[in-house]
# Entry
Amino acid sequence: MSVLEKGADTTAGWFDDRLGGAGYIRKSLNKVFPDHWSFMLGEIALYSFIILLLTGTYLSFFYTPSLTEVVYDGSYIPLKGVTMSQAYESTLNISFDVRGGLIMRQIHHWAALLFMAAIVVHLARVFFTGAFRKPRELNWVIGTLLLVMGIVEGFAGYSLPDDLLSGTGARIANGIALSIPVIGSWAAFLVFGGEYPGTAILDRLYALHIFVVPLLILGLITFHMLMVWYQKHTQFAGPGRTEHNVVGSRLFPGYAAKAGGFFFLVFAVLAALGGLAQINPVWLYGPYNPSQVSAGSQPDWYVGFLDGSTRLMPPWEISGFGYTVPLSVLIPTVVLPGVLFTLLGLYPWIEARISKDKGYHNLLDRPRDKPVRTAIGAMTITFYVVLMIAGGNDVIASVFHLSINTMTWVLRIGLFVLPPVVYFLTKRACLSLQRSDQELIHHGIETGTIRRLPNGEFVEETVPLPEVYQVGMTGVEAEPLDAGPETPAPVGPGYEQPQLAQAPDRDGFFSSRRKREKVPVESDAPALEQTGSRKV
Amino acid sequence: MNGQVVNKVSTRGRSRRRSRLSGIAVIMLALVAVGSLYTAVAAPSSAQESEPANQSMKVQEGRDLFLSGCSTCHGLNLAGGAGGPSLIGVGASSVIFQVESGRMPLAAGVQQAPRKDVRYTTEQIDALAAYIDSNGGGPSLPSGSLTDGDLQLGGALFRTNCASCHNFAGSGGALTYGKYAPELEQASARVIYTAMQSGPESMPRYGDNQLTVEEKKAITRYVRYITEAEDVGGAGLGRYGPLTEGLVAWVVGVVALVALTLWIGARA
# Structure
């Protein structure tokens, strides 16, 4: 034992004598996480959040959340002598006069964009693999809340510089609040402390941005991860993996080294973006002035779908009894996100209700094995992407010399036509992939060797698919391929469905998996026999 | 009148005719003498006096250029015609904006005249401008530098009057039905100034009562300044705002991070 090890041993012993916990730590360090690259996507969001906290703390040293008017006297010449808010002045100072301020601001902003993007990618992974199913519905809800909190946090941060862009965003938020029937005016006055823009909004957003919402996000992340810890991570099917175990690497040292290294990789990508790509050049936007607006004023990407829905919405409104309900604002910015996020949060229950699947699931689905779920996901992504494109229709029209009016109509129609088309195509693609899997399993891997039989017939030789892939594809382990004819199912009450060891694998709405048990290889399926040794 | 005089002379005989001829010769000689004397004596002022002559030569040159390059659409007498508006009274500014930005001569009837390669030299453009200006006048460029205005004032005026179409950084923006406010990086100071003066196509016209000469010069300077200024934060991403930033976040950021996830996920 080296001196270092002895020292560590003594120190650890000292703490253990007073606090205990050696047993717990030993157990924790031995905790097993399943190995799959897609399980690390959520970590990108986590590490982006840590970087947001670090860079945000630095920025808060130099930022002043005040709308008090001052005359700028900093380094950026085109604004020298211009009257502006202290908030904007301090943002300019961070960009031009604080050492390292600009790169911190840029890393902070890029980290925000990637935090949200990583959440969405992670959400897609969880969705398409069915990781949200019982017992993990609550963690899905927490994830949905994190997504919404991220949007709120991002919007608050977007508004802080008090440049022309952020002011325009706050103006729109005010309009959205005003569009709510009955309570709209009160809500807008409550949030903004009076008529827009007022002087209170920036202090409020600052408090939300640096304290309330980050704390909520931190709390939700803690719950999110504690639940992963407690419920254990899901895993894909494979040899030795069941619904009741976890196969992977131990937390220490394997997983800890990976995760620690991954943090620095995420930091590297964000630092590279922050150093090489300019983001939100506030000095070009100029100070906020309610009478000004720039062409191409867009929200950051994660709010873009709401901008798009507003742009696609026809100018409808209802008037009566001296009041007007502006449907053109209310529906795309209040009703639509409300419905979307509610459906998202409730999805585990919706699917369980429709598929009548109330079982525990620790093994993940491959997306192709749940064609309907995968198609719903692809359809939703299509809907979302159409809205996002619509949110940038002016810049796209300007850059590619398109007619913005034509584009709006194409996207309006696309919003309702494309998702069903994508749904259909995705479902068919999933079923085709299932078939190709079945063929691989039953037909085997082509060797490229052609054998000529004595009767002159040519046949192609194949080798069976290695078991590790078979198990991964089917979730069924150690079942010999040539199981022979199925034993007749017992008849009587309770025996309608063949009871499998795995999750219910019936032909429901969500799972159209072709049961390989029902497709015996050689006995009574001439079509498959043909593929077993395919004629050339 | 002259015919009657000649008739009278012819009736009065040869001697009178001779004396009349000699009289013309004397007058001619006197004129030549006076003319030579004038040229000799008044030499210092000749430069000033030649300006109208130069101007008329410029107008003449402009007219020639107009007849060969523009009259098919704008008509032989500037009154407009097949596809082209009348140019009487549009002023020199319109000519400078349209020709110096390459929009004129127009290649085809399109929604909005696009920028093209410039077909004329600056001298030729000035000649064309002089010719158009000589027919009905109109706004023309002020004297002095166009880019010595107040930079900060220019910024404020730009954000109020220009950014709503041309975007905060002059990167351009979309208008209705395929029309657009062009990006301003390619626009020279003369083009920027004359655009404000002449209000081409969808753009409003800013006469000297809306924006004074000094204010227009300030805007011109600001536009040149920001379009020439380098992006201090790294790659400018076209200065289109959050749209390209979001695109980079996904196409560069997410792709890089997912690739790294695959890489680190593959190390067991």
The two ends of chain A are 68 Å apart (CA to CA). DSSP finds 18 helices and eight strands in chain A.
